[in-house]
Amino acid sequence: MRPRDLSVLLPLAFAACNFQQFDKFSEDTPSTAFVDRSYGARVALTSDASGITVLAAGGNPGEGVRFFTVGDGRSAPSTVPRSTAALCELSTDKIVGGTPCVGGTTLAAAGTLNDGGSDAAPGLDHIGCFAVGYGRVTTAATLYGPVIACADGQVFTLGGATGSQVEKSLSLLDPVALTALRIAFAALPGAGKLPSKNPPLLMGSEADGGAWFWPAATPGSAPRVVPAPSDAKTARFGASVAMARGAGTSLLLVAAPEAGRIYAYTPGATAADAPVPVACLEGDKGAGSAIGVGDLDGDGLDDVAVTDPRRVRIFLGKKRPTTLGTGDCPSTWPAEAIELTCAETAGAGGCSAAQFGASLAIGDLDGNGQVDLAVGAPNASYSGVEGAGAVFLFSPLSSTTVLDVRGLASPNAGDAFGASVAIGKVGAQDTLAVGARGKGGAYVTWCTKLPGDPGGARCRK
Q1: How far is CA 53 from the centre of its chain?
Q2: From CA 282, how far away is CA 267, in angstroms rounded?
Q3: DSSP 3-state assignment of 244?
Q4: Residue 389 carries which DSSP code?
Q5: Which SS3 state, helix, strand or coil, does residue 21 take?
């Protein structure tokens, strides 16, 4: 494995852009986190026990995941992986060794996992954990399940989705079948009234037309089956998933892109009960290929951003139905009039077939108290280069105008910058990580130049 030379990441400046906190190239120094295979297809951020931010960067399903120390924003990060072995890598040697694990199409930052089972139970806390794939950890294990890997090197397996296509393919140990599997993960690390450890985990499998919910990501714990619509398999139910915070509870979101729907559920009344349908988020065919969750309006309830073909739509948490029901869609969650689209602007254009909305992430990137939405468009033309890719930044509740665009300073065709995006804390500041699948790299865009105090023009905190 030999790192390749990557270009420096800089923001695009253009006349229509008025994002004042991002206007100095010298204060937007990025870091290349990792280069290998197609790493950059999946990225996620969380923190380890020391408060240092950890980046999980992964390739396409089957190509593994590695962890990198991002830092605290005050010193340059390490571009050397925290471990020499790739996690959840599906290769011939792993199959022969009897420990297959197929990576998810998304990585889920799970935060803290306690191997004793709960906050109250004794056990060791493992901080900086991610759901990275589905498989088994050791040759002694006979059951498969979601694989949770932590920054301290510990790896755990939850109880599996018994009888699923995922488990059937793993039992055959067929590399072709396994690499074709598409499994999506979402987790909800603790905040407020939600548990601070062993967070709930959601997994979708479009091959099954199914989804599974673990009320707590406790090693060995069994899932609850999410009720699926009647056309689940043809609708690709489970192609993408997300979890949101509501009023004292969590909300499970499972997309069925071929039906143009995202199904919303609440957990059952007890940990033993199956999730209960609440509402549907409606869109055109293809809606829900990516879902972003965060509190855009500051009311304490998570809002939902959904990719509809060539646009992104917003669903506010305060308007979601709360009456539980039966059937596929007990009620409809109304979308806002807000629609975000790819911007044909100077320097970043070529929006036809740009895959606008291929990835979504929500956070306050400039520290001004107003939450921003990052939208990846990995096939967008950038500086006249086709397929270079870009990330568009919006403050959607204020304006549908693009505030800023991110891209590689020296783009190449097929870089696919924006194939994945994630926002996480580096120190006290929300920070953007971007994957460039074609480039084979994951990038972190800092709020200030490094090294130094992260309190410059871009960081108000």
Answers
A1: 16
A2: 21
A3: strand
A4: B
A5: helix
